[in-house]
Design brief:
This protein is an all-alpha fold. The chain has eleven helices and no strands. Helix 2 crosses helix 11 and helix 3 crosses helix 7.
């Protein structure tokens, strides 16, 4: 597993977000086609992600995927009608709180806001690849998507945003509250706007390309 890359400055991150390789990586990701919601959920969050959840009475992958599939199906119309960042943020917050509640009931443990939002944002990232969506719907969703906050996307900001007090070993558990989550997303969005790319491209750069090693 490659080590998370710490961007040296905001200027460096902006330049890397603008790079043709980053743009192509984003285009390639969203060119994928998921035929069903079940495929979106299963491929959006792979088995390795669930290694962080151990010694639970219920299998974490099953617990999450069952909840996620049902939640997406139940809110499908709502999600596809969202057209602005405020509505989208509210949708994610409500979903994360729902997941936290469901997880607590089924596993008798606390998933935490940071970990819950990270898992759901991974699903939403792949949701934009759903075959039944129109190109317009896909474009809107891609423009609104939040960055899944994990060690790669959090540590990547450590030198850029000292006000966030990010430790060198931060993981998705570092984000504990909705307010903290919002501050991270606002920071990422501000930087992405300067690079003229969707905020989710930060995840493409820090995580997807990070696993191919950033030079």
């Amino acid at each position: 597993m490659p080590k998370p890359y710490e961007f040296k400055s905001e200027e460096e991150l902006i330049e890397m977000l603008k790079q043709p390789t980053t743009l192509k990586a984003g285009q390639d990701f969203f060119a994928q086609v998921s035929p069903t919601i079940d495929h979106v959920v299963t491929s959006g969050v792979t088995g390795n992600t669930f290694r962080a959840f151990r010694k639970l009475p219920a299998q974490p992958s099953t617990t999450f995927r069952t909840w996620a599939k049902n939640y997406i199906q139940d809110t499908f119309f709502t999600l596809n009608q969202i057209s602005d960042a405020t509505e989208y943020a509210k949708y994610i917050d409500q979903a994360t709180l729902s997941l936290c509640e469901s997880w607590q009931k089924l596993t008798n443990s606390d998933i935490g806001y940071g970990r819950g939002s990270k898992l759901f944002n991974l699903v939403l990232k792949k949701f934009a690849c759903l075959q039944s969506l129109s190109q317009e719907q896909k474009n809107i969703l891609i423009s609104l998507q939040h960055t899944p906050l994990d060690s790669y996307t959090i540590i990547g900001l450590r030198l850029i945003a000292p006000e966030l007090s990010i430790p060198k070993s931060a993981t998705m558990k570092f984000v504990e509250t909705p307010k903290q989550y919002t501050i991270f997303q606002e920071k990422i969005t501000a930087i992405a706007n300067k690079a003229n790319v969707p905020p989710i491209y930060y995840d493409i750069l820090a995580w997807d390309m990070g696993h191919q090693s950033i030079k």
